[in-house]
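User: F-box protein PP2-A11. Structure?
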Amino acid sequence: MYIFHAHSYKRALFRRCQVENINQLYPFSFLKDSINPSSSSSSSLSLSLNPEENGDLFFHLSSTLLHLPSSSLQLKTLSPYQKKKKILPFDLLQSFFLFSFMGAGVSSDLDAQKGTTNFQLKTGLNDVPESCISSIFMYLDPPEICKLARLNKAFRGASLADFVWETKLPSNYRYLVEKVLGRNPDSLCKKETFARLCSPNRFDGGNKEVWLDKNSGKLCLSVSAKAMIITGIDDRRYWNHIPTEESRFETVAYLQQIWWFEVVGELEFEFPPGSYSVFFRLHLGKPSKRFGRRVCNLDQVHGWNTKPVRFQLSTSTGHQISSECYLYEPGNWVHYHAGDFVIDDSNPTTKIKFSMMQIDCTHTKGGLCVDSVFIYPSEFRQMRFK
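Assistant: Predicted structure:
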Protein backbone atom coordinates (compact mmCIF):
# COMPACT_ATOMS: atom_id res chain seq x y z
CA MET A 1 0.00 0.00 0.00
CA TYR A 2 1.22 3.50 -0.80
CA ILE A 3 0.26 6.43 1.46
CA PHE A 4 0.67 10.11 0.57
CA HIS A 5 0.31 12.51 3.48
CA ALA A 6 0.49 16.29 3.60
CA HIS A 7 0.75 17.93 6.99
CA SER A 8 1.63 21.04 9.01
CA TYR A 9 -0.64 23.67 7.54
CA LYS A 10 -3.40 25.88 8.99
CA ARG A 11 -7.02 24.95 8.61
CA ALA A 12 -8.30 25.92 5.15
CA LEU A 13 -11.83 27.14 4.61
CA PHE A 14 -13.58 24.12 3.17
CA ARG A 15 -16.49 24.69 0.86
CA ARG A 16 -17.00 21.86 -1.59
CA CYS A 17 -15.19 19.28 -3.68
CA GLN A 18 -17.12 17.49 -6.41
CA VAL A 19 -15.96 14.80 -8.84
CA GLU A 20 -17.68 14.28 -12.20
CA ASN A 21 -17.46 11.54 -14.85
CA ILE A 22 -15.85 9.17 -12.41
CA ASN A 23 -16.67 6.15 -14.60
CA GLN A 24 -14.13 7.44 -17.12
CA LEU A 25 -11.33 7.14 -14.60
CA TYR A 26 -10.89 3.35 -14.51
CA PRO A 27 -8.84 1.97 -12.78
CA PHE A 28 -9.33 4.82 -10.26
CA SER A 29 -11.88 4.26 -7.50
CA PHE A 30 -12.75 7.50 -5.67
CA LEU A 31 -14.27 7.43 -2.22
CA LYS A 32 -16.56 10.48 -2.22
CA ASP A 33 -17.91 9.90 1.27
CA SER A 34 -14.39 10.21 2.70
CA ILE A 35 -14.23 13.96 2.05
CA ASN A 36 -15.03 15.60 5.35
CA PRO A 37 -14.27 19.15 6.52
CA SER A 38 -12.19 19.20 9.63
CA SER A 39 -13.11 21.34 12.60
CA SER A 40 -9.66 21.17 14.11
CA SER A 41 -6.96 23.79 13.70
CA SER A 42 -5.02 21.52 11.37
CA SER A 43 -6.04 19.07 8.70
CA SER A 44 -4.45 16.69 6.27
CA LEU A 45 -4.48 15.56 2.69
CA SER A 46 -3.88 11.90 2.02
CA LEU A 47 -3.83 9.54 -0.92
CA SER A 48 -3.83 5.78 -0.44
CA LEU A 49 -2.99 3.31 -3.18
CA ASN A 50 -3.38 -0.42 -2.66
CA PRO A 51 -2.08 -2.37 -5.70
CA GLU A 52 -2.77 -5.75 -4.11
CA GLU A 53 -6.57 -5.59 -4.37
CA ASN A 54 -7.40 -6.60 -7.94
CA GLY A 55 -4.84 -4.14 -9.27
CA ASP A 56 -7.10 -1.13 -8.63
CA LEU A 57 -5.93 2.18 -7.18
CA PHE A 58 -7.94 3.50 -4.26
CA PHE A 59 -7.77 7.22 -3.73
CA HIS A 60 -8.67 8.73 -0.39
CA LEU A 61 -8.96 12.51 -0.25
CA SER A 62 -9.53 14.26 3.09
CA SER A 63 -9.94 17.95 3.88
CA THR A 64 -9.63 20.62 1.19
CA LEU A 65 -7.61 20.78 -2.01
CA LEU A 66 -7.35 24.58 -2.05
CA HIS A 67 -5.39 27.23 -0.17
CA LEU A 68 -2.75 24.74 0.95
CA PRO A 69 0.68 26.19 1.72
CA SER A 70 3.92 25.13 0.07
CA SER A 71 4.69 22.49 2.65
CA SER A 72 6.00 19.07 1.76
CA LEU A 73 4.33 15.81 0.94
CA GLN A 74 5.74 12.65 2.42
CA LEU A 75 5.40 9.50 0.32
CA LYS A 76 5.83 6.20 2.14
CA THR A 77 6.06 3.03 0.08
CA LEU A 78 4.70 0.01 1.94
CA SER A 79 4.68 -2.40 -1.02
CA PRO A 80 6.36 -5.79 -0.36
CA TYR A 81 8.31 -5.29 -3.59
CA GLN A 82 9.54 -1.69 -2.99
CA LYS A 83 11.02 -0.47 0.27
CA LYS A 84 11.56 3.16 -0.67
CA LYS A 85 10.83 6.44 1.03
CA LYS A 86 10.93 9.77 -0.72
CA ILE A 87 9.98 13.36 -0.01
CA LEU A 88 8.27 15.06 -2.96
CA PRO A 89 7.45 18.77 -3.34
CA PHE A 90 3.87 19.34 -2.31
CA ASP A 91 3.19 21.49 -5.38
CA LEU A 92 3.84 18.48 -7.61
CA LEU A 93 1.33 16.25 -5.84
CA GLN A 94 -1.15 19.08 -5.42
CA SER A 95 -1.18 19.62 -9.18
CA PHE A 96 -1.74 15.89 -9.66
CA PHE A 97 -4.74 15.95 -7.30
CA LEU A 98 -6.27 19.05 -8.85
CA PHE A 99 -5.87 17.96 -12.46
CA SER A 100 -6.35 14.20 -12.28
CA PHE A 101 -10.07 13.89 -11.70
CA MET A 102 -11.36 14.23 -15.30
CA GLY A 103 -13.25 17.47 -15.32
CA ALA A 104 -13.34 17.91 -11.57
CA GLY A 105 -14.77 21.24 -10.43
CA VAL A 106 -13.48 22.79 -7.24
CA SER A 107 -14.83 26.00 -5.81
CA SER A 108 -14.39 27.97 -2.63
CA ASP A 109 -16.46 30.99 -1.59
CA LEU A 110 -15.72 33.27 1.32
CA ASP A 111 -17.93 35.96 2.72
CA ALA A 112 -17.50 39.18 0.69
CA GLN A 113 -17.26 41.36 3.75
CA LYS A 114 -14.49 39.17 5.14
CA GLY A 115 -12.32 39.24 2.05
CA THR A 116 -14.28 37.11 -0.38
CA THR A 117 -12.43 35.45 -3.25
CA ASN A 118 -14.05 33.39 -6.00
CA PHE A 119 -11.92 30.60 -7.38
CA GLN A 120 -13.00 28.33 -10.23
CA LEU A 121 -10.80 25.61 -11.71
CA LYS A 122 -11.85 23.36 -14.60
CA THR A 123 -9.19 21.09 -16.03
CA GLY A 124 -8.66 17.55 -17.24
CA LEU A 125 -6.08 14.79 -17.16
CA ASN A 126 -4.34 16.17 -20.25
CA ASP A 127 -3.19 19.16 -18.18
CA VAL A 128 -1.17 17.10 -15.71
CA PRO A 129 2.60 17.53 -16.35
CA GLU A 130 4.28 14.36 -17.58
CA SER A 131 7.08 14.81 -15.05
CA CYS A 132 4.50 14.77 -12.24
CA ILE A 133 2.86 11.60 -13.58
CA SER A 134 6.24 9.91 -14.09
CA SER A 135 7.20 10.62 -10.48
CA ILE A 136 4.02 8.85 -9.35
CA PHE A 137 4.56 5.95 -11.76
CA MET A 138 7.89 5.16 -10.09
CA TYR A 139 5.92 3.84 -7.09
CA LEU A 140 3.34 1.79 -9.01
CA ASP A 141 3.60 -1.77 -10.28
CA PRO A 142 4.08 -2.31 -14.05
CA PRO A 143 0.51 -3.58 -14.75
CA GLU A 144 -0.91 -0.47 -13.10
CA ILE A 145 1.34 1.78 -15.19
CA CYS A 146 0.17 0.06 -18.38
CA LYS A 147 -3.48 0.53 -17.41
CA LEU A 148 -3.01 4.22 -16.66
CA ALA A 149 -1.08 4.72 -19.91
CA ARG A 150 -4.34 4.11 -21.78
CA LEU A 151 -6.04 7.13 -20.21
CA ASN A 152 -4.62 9.81 -22.48
CA LYS A 153 -1.53 11.14 -24.27
CA ALA A 154 0.04 12.66 -21.13
CA PHE A 155 -0.15 9.42 -19.18
CA ARG A 156 1.09 7.46 -22.18
CA GLY A 157 4.08 9.76 -22.60
CA ALA A 158 4.90 9.56 -18.88
CA SER A 159 4.78 5.76 -19.02
CA LEU A 160 7.64 5.72 -21.56
CA ALA A 161 10.18 7.44 -19.32
CA ASP A 162 13.36 5.38 -18.89
CA PHE A 163 13.79 6.36 -15.24
CA VAL A 164 10.35 4.90 -14.48
CA TRP A 165 11.10 1.46 -15.90
CA GLU A 166 14.66 1.33 -14.62
CA THR A 167 13.21 1.08 -11.11
CA LYS A 168 11.26 -2.04 -12.19
CA LEU A 169 14.25 -3.87 -13.70
CA PRO A 170 16.46 -6.15 -11.59
CA SER A 171 19.98 -5.00 -10.80
CA ASN A 172 21.45 -7.55 -13.26
CA TYR A 173 19.28 -6.57 -16.23
CA ARG A 174 22.32 -5.69 -18.38
CA TYR A 175 23.67 -9.21 -17.85
CA LEU A 176 20.28 -10.66 -18.80
CA VAL A 177 20.01 -8.60 -21.98
CA GLU A 178 23.47 -9.68 -23.13
CA LYS A 179 23.22 -13.37 -22.14
CA VAL A 180 19.58 -14.10 -22.90
CA LEU A 181 18.53 -11.57 -25.54
CA GLY A 182 21.95 -11.30 -27.18
CA ARG A 183 21.59 -7.52 -27.45
CA ASN A 184 23.46 -4.44 -26.32
CA PRO A 185 21.60 -3.13 -23.23
CA ASP A 186 22.01 0.45 -24.47
CA SER A 187 20.22 -0.34 -27.76
CA LEU A 188 16.85 -0.87 -26.06
CA CYS A 189 14.73 1.57 -24.10
CA LYS A 190 13.99 0.50 -20.54
CA LYS A 191 10.30 -0.23 -21.16
CA GLU A 192 11.12 -2.50 -24.11
CA THR A 193 13.82 -4.17 -22.05
CA PHE A 194 11.31 -4.90 -19.28
CA ALA A 195 8.71 -6.20 -21.77
CA ARG A 196 11.18 -8.55 -23.48
CA LEU A 197 12.55 -9.91 -20.22
CA CYS A 198 9.02 -10.59 -18.94
CA SER A 199 8.50 -12.99 -21.84
CA PRO A 200 10.00 -16.48 -21.34
CA ASN A 201 13.46 -16.47 -22.99
CA ARG A 202 15.39 -19.67 -23.55
CA PHE A 203 19.15 -20.06 -23.47
CA ASP A 204 21.82 -22.80 -23.28
CA GLY A 205 20.46 -24.69 -26.25
CA GLY A 206 16.82 -24.01 -25.40
CA ASN A 207 16.90 -26.23 -22.29
CA LYS A 208 16.79 -23.36 -19.79
CA GLU A 209 14.35 -20.49 -19.53
CA VAL A 210 14.39 -17.17 -17.70
CA TRP A 211 11.78 -14.45 -17.27
CA LEU A 212 10.79 -11.59 -14.98
CA ASP A 213 7.62 -11.56 -12.93
CA LYS A 214 5.55 -8.78 -14.52
CA ASN A 215 4.25 -7.50 -11.18
CA SER A 216 7.48 -7.28 -9.22
CA GLY A 217 10.32 -7.54 -11.76
CA LYS A 218 11.73 -10.50 -9.80
CA LEU A 219 13.86 -13.08 -11.62
CA CYS A 220 12.48 -16.58 -12.30
CA LEU A 221 14.24 -19.55 -13.91
CA SER A 222 13.37 -23.01 -15.19
CA VAL A 223 15.70 -25.88 -16.12
CA SER A 224 14.41 -28.65 -18.39
CA ALA A 225 14.92 -32.36 -17.64
CA LYS A 226 17.03 -32.50 -20.83
CA ALA A 227 19.57 -30.19 -19.17
CA MET A 228 19.99 -32.57 -16.20
CA ILE A 229 22.04 -35.72 -15.72
CA ILE A 230 19.64 -38.66 -15.25
CA THR A 231 20.93 -42.13 -14.46
CA GLY A 232 19.98 -44.54 -17.26
CA ILE A 233 18.37 -41.86 -19.46
CA ASP A 234 19.88 -43.38 -22.64
CA ASP A 235 18.45 -46.84 -21.96
CA ARG A 236 14.91 -47.06 -23.37
CA ARG A 237 14.15 -49.94 -21.01
CA TYR A 238 14.11 -47.38 -18.21
CA TRP A 239 13.46 -43.91 -19.56
CA ASN A 240 11.67 -42.21 -22.46
CA HIS A 241 11.21 -38.59 -23.51
CA ILE A 242 7.51 -38.08 -24.19
CA PRO A 243 5.95 -34.96 -25.78
CA THR A 244 3.27 -33.15 -23.78
CA GLU A 245 1.51 -29.79 -23.73
CA GLU A 246 1.74 -29.77 -19.93
CA SER A 247 5.44 -28.81 -19.93
CA ARG A 248 7.03 -25.44 -20.63
CA PHE A 249 9.57 -27.33 -22.74
CA GLU A 250 6.98 -29.46 -24.59
CA THR A 251 8.63 -32.69 -23.41
CA VAL A 252 9.24 -34.58 -20.15
CA ALA A 253 11.41 -37.51 -19.07
CA TYR A 254 9.24 -40.52 -18.18
CA LEU A 255 10.56 -43.30 -15.95
CA GLN A 256 9.11 -46.74 -16.66
CA GLN A 257 11.07 -48.75 -14.09
CA ILE A 258 14.52 -48.58 -12.47
CA TRP A 259 16.44 -49.68 -9.39
CA TRP A 260 18.79 -46.69 -9.00
CA PHE A 261 16.94 -43.39 -9.39
CA GLU A 262 19.07 -40.22 -9.52
CA VAL A 263 18.59 -36.82 -11.20
CA VAL A 264 21.27 -34.10 -10.95
CA GLY A 265 21.29 -30.57 -12.39
CA GLU A 266 23.62 -27.57 -12.31
CA LEU A 267 23.23 -23.89 -13.15
CA GLU A 268 25.72 -21.03 -13.17
CA PHE A 269 23.98 -17.67 -13.32
CA GLU A 270 24.14 -14.08 -12.13
CA PHE A 271 21.25 -13.67 -9.70
CA PRO A 272 20.09 -10.33 -8.27
CA PRO A 273 20.52 -10.15 -4.49
CA GLY A 274 17.76 -11.90 -2.61
CA SER A 275 16.45 -15.23 -1.36
CA TYR A 276 15.46 -17.97 -3.82
CA SER A 277 13.66 -21.31 -3.61
CA VAL A 278 14.25 -24.41 -5.75
CA PHE A 279 11.42 -26.78 -6.76
CA PHE A 280 11.28 -30.04 -8.72
CA ARG A 281 8.15 -30.34 -10.87
CA LEU A 282 7.13 -34.02 -10.87
CA HIS A 283 4.12 -36.11 -11.85
CA LEU A 284 3.20 -39.65 -10.81
CA GLY A 285 1.61 -41.34 -13.81
CA LYS A 286 1.80 -40.88 -17.58
CA PRO A 287 -0.46 -38.04 -18.78
CA SER A 288 -1.86 -38.01 -22.29
CA LYS A 289 -4.90 -36.94 -24.29
CA ARG A 290 -7.63 -39.18 -25.64
CA PHE A 291 -10.46 -37.80 -27.76
CA GLY A 292 -9.48 -34.30 -26.63
CA ARG A 293 -9.66 -35.14 -22.93
CA ARG A 294 -6.80 -35.52 -20.45
CA VAL A 295 -6.19 -39.01 -19.17
CA CYS A 296 -3.48 -40.41 -16.89
CA ASN A 297 -2.11 -43.95 -16.92
CA LEU A 298 -1.09 -45.03 -13.39
CA ASP A 299 -0.30 -48.66 -14.23
CA GLN A 300 3.49 -48.25 -13.86
CA VAL A 301 3.43 -46.13 -10.67
CA HIS A 302 5.09 -48.12 -7.89
CA GLY A 303 7.87 -48.02 -5.28
CA TRP A 304 7.52 -44.39 -4.17
CA ASN A 305 5.71 -45.18 -0.93
CA THR A 306 8.39 -47.61 0.26
CA LYS A 307 11.22 -45.11 0.83
CA PRO A 308 11.26 -41.29 0.57
CA VAL A 309 13.07 -39.36 -2.14
CA ARG A 310 16.04 -37.28 -0.99
CA PHE A 311 16.33 -33.70 -2.34
CA GLN A 312 19.67 -31.87 -2.10
CA LEU A 313 20.78 -28.33 -2.88
CA SER A 314 24.25 -26.74 -2.71
CA THR A 315 25.78 -23.47 -3.94
CA SER A 316 29.27 -22.22 -4.72
CA THR A 317 29.02 -19.98 -1.66
CA GLY A 318 29.07 -23.04 0.62
CA HIS A 319 25.36 -23.31 1.32
CA GLN A 320 24.04 -26.90 1.54
CA ILE A 321 20.65 -28.32 2.40
CA SER A 322 19.05 -31.76 2.27
CA SER A 323 15.51 -33.01 2.83
CA GLU A 324 13.40 -36.13 2.28
CA CYS A 325 9.84 -36.48 1.05
CA TYR A 326 7.49 -39.20 -0.17
CA LEU A 327 6.01 -38.53 -3.61
CA TYR A 328 2.25 -38.06 -3.55
CA GLU A 329 -0.87 -37.07 -5.52
CA PRO A 330 -0.77 -39.45 -8.52
CA GLY A 331 -2.23 -37.86 -11.61
CA ASN A 332 -1.26 -34.28 -10.67
CA TRP A 333 1.79 -32.11 -11.17
CA VAL A 334 3.43 -31.31 -7.83
CA HIS A 335 6.24 -28.87 -6.98
CA TYR A 336 8.57 -30.46 -4.41
CA HIS A 337 10.64 -27.97 -2.44
CA ALA A 338 14.34 -28.84 -2.60
CA GLY A 339 15.65 -25.90 -0.54
CA ASP A 340 16.44 -22.17 -0.41
CA PHE A 341 19.59 -20.16 -1.02
CA VAL A 342 20.55 -16.50 -0.54
CA ILE A 343 22.46 -14.21 -2.89
CA ASP A 344 24.17 -11.06 -1.63
CA ASP A 345 25.92 -8.21 -3.46
CA SER A 346 29.35 -9.84 -3.15
CA ASN A 347 28.37 -12.88 -5.29
CA PRO A 348 27.62 -11.67 -8.83
CA THR A 349 27.83 -15.15 -10.37
CA THR A 350 26.68 -18.19 -8.41
CA LYS A 351 26.81 -21.88 -9.27
CA ILE A 352 24.05 -24.02 -7.80
CA LYS A 353 23.67 -27.81 -7.84
CA PHE A 354 20.37 -29.58 -7.19
CA SER A 355 19.50 -33.27 -7.14
CA MET A 356 16.90 -35.85 -6.20
CA MET A 357 17.55 -39.53 -5.61
CA GLN A 358 16.10 -42.79 -4.34
CA ILE A 359 18.93 -45.30 -4.50
CA ASP A 360 17.60 -48.09 -2.29
CA CYS A 361 18.15 -51.07 -4.60
CA THR A 362 15.95 -53.44 -2.56
CA HIS A 363 12.98 -52.48 -4.74
CA THR A 364 12.21 -50.92 -8.11
CA LYS A 365 10.31 -47.69 -8.69
CA GLY A 366 8.61 -46.30 -11.78
CA GLY A 367 5.76 -44.37 -13.38
CA LEU A 368 7.28 -40.92 -12.78
CA CYS A 369 7.44 -37.86 -15.08
CA VAL A 370 10.32 -35.42 -14.50
CA ASP A 371 9.53 -32.09 -16.10
CA SER A 372 11.87 -29.38 -14.83
CA VAL A 373 13.35 -27.49 -11.91
CA PHE A 374 11.98 -24.04 -11.01
CA ILE A 375 13.92 -21.30 -9.23
CA TYR A 376 11.70 -18.58 -7.80
CA PRO A 377 12.11 -15.73 -5.30
CA SER A 378 11.31 -17.18 -1.89
CA GLU A 379 8.41 -14.77 -1.34
CA PHE A 380 6.59 -16.51 -4.22
CA ARG A 381 6.65 -19.85 -2.42
CA GLN A 382 3.41 -19.50 -0.47
CA MET A 383 1.72 -17.66 -3.31
CA ARG A 384 2.44 -20.16 -6.11
CA PHE A 385 3.13 -23.52 -4.55
CA LYS A 386 0.58 -23.97 -1.79
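Residues 2-164 form one domain. The chain has three domains: 2-164, 169-199, 202-384.
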